[in-house]
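Render PQQ-dependent sugar dehydrogenase in 3D.
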Amino acid sequence: MKRLTLSVAATIVLALAGTGCNQSATTTEEGTQTTTTDTTKTTEPAAPTAQTDRKPLETREANVPDQKPTFPEQNRASGITSDAAFDVVVLAKNLENPWAVEPLPNGDLLVTEKSGRLRMITAAGQVGQPITGLPKVDARGQGGLLDVALSPGFATDRTIYWSFSEPRANGNATSVAKGVLSADNKSLSQVKVIFQAKPAYNGEMHFGSRLAFGPDGMLYVTLGERSDLEIRPQAQQMNSHMGKTLRITTDGKPAPDNPFMNQQGAMPEIWSVGHRNVQASAFDDQGRFWIVEHGPQGGDEVNLIEKGKNYGWPVVTFGEEYSGKPIPNSVTTKQGYVDPVYYWDPVIAPSGAQFYSGSAFPQWKGNLFVGGLKDKMLVRLQLENDRVTGEEHLLTDRNQRIRDVRQGPDGSLFIVTDEKNGELWKVSPKK
């Protein structure tokens, strides 16, 4: 698929943003307020989708029934059942809206709480006091202390990275900081904010944000476009970090060979364009970068990210506003934009992702696990040739919003639940 010239894409979206529209408040996937519009949506014809031999797991009515997948495997995958027997151990309780879990080489775990606390929880489940030294966060709405990741050289440098919604003079925005964790796991030193997304905006929504180190040693950062209609078009504008994935060095500089490094007016950290709110990312066993992003109602997406490509939002997207109104002037597929590998309608509200590579569950090798907030489940996706061939919903009986999932050094999966009294779980083979 040919890539659309991004300056042209920006012009298109700016034109759309300038059209007259009626705005109204509505509820998003995270339960906060945004604005929508009554502008009529047009949908380009989709490819035929004869799927008579498939038995999809999802059988509920679609949010947007008239929209059809671009190719047969793009949504409503066949239901599959795991033959892996596992136990779920609750390692910790009473965490305040935990947002991320990061396993350490020794089996201990770093956990962020959205209100601004970072804790060390031992492999045995002992919860440490909040680690000191973190900068202030703006924890309103969807903001707060977000992801945490270990330096590739953590074993020797004890450096960690974290993302957070940073209060700024004229609003807030997502920032990335790093610091050195003390030997007793109680404090951070040499703390430095290494990257600040721009522009700042006075809002409470769509901060992203996941951090993942690639095989190239660079730090990949995912962001949201801040949701509101006035700033949403910046997902297509190259002079803004909003609605992008970024690739930066361990010091926060634009990574070498970034696709727009020499493009006048473009932010040099940009890796890909046209995203709504990305709260899940992971590298597969081939070293390829995948994201799972909150779409509009009926439009959550799994995307395989390629350097410099445009993933469409808000010009090309499945779904509708959370008010039930159409996305202004959008289509579901268009030449020059990358189609999602998979999308959910109805949505799952995805947050946290992990490609499984451990030996504890050999049946799951190569599967993509995704946390589900809205339907309170862990999603397992089976992929073949970059298509989703099966889907399973796990842990639904626990009825908690799953915010993050990560693989530990022993092959177990660690999960945090986004609740006022959130929990940390360990999923390991049944004994």
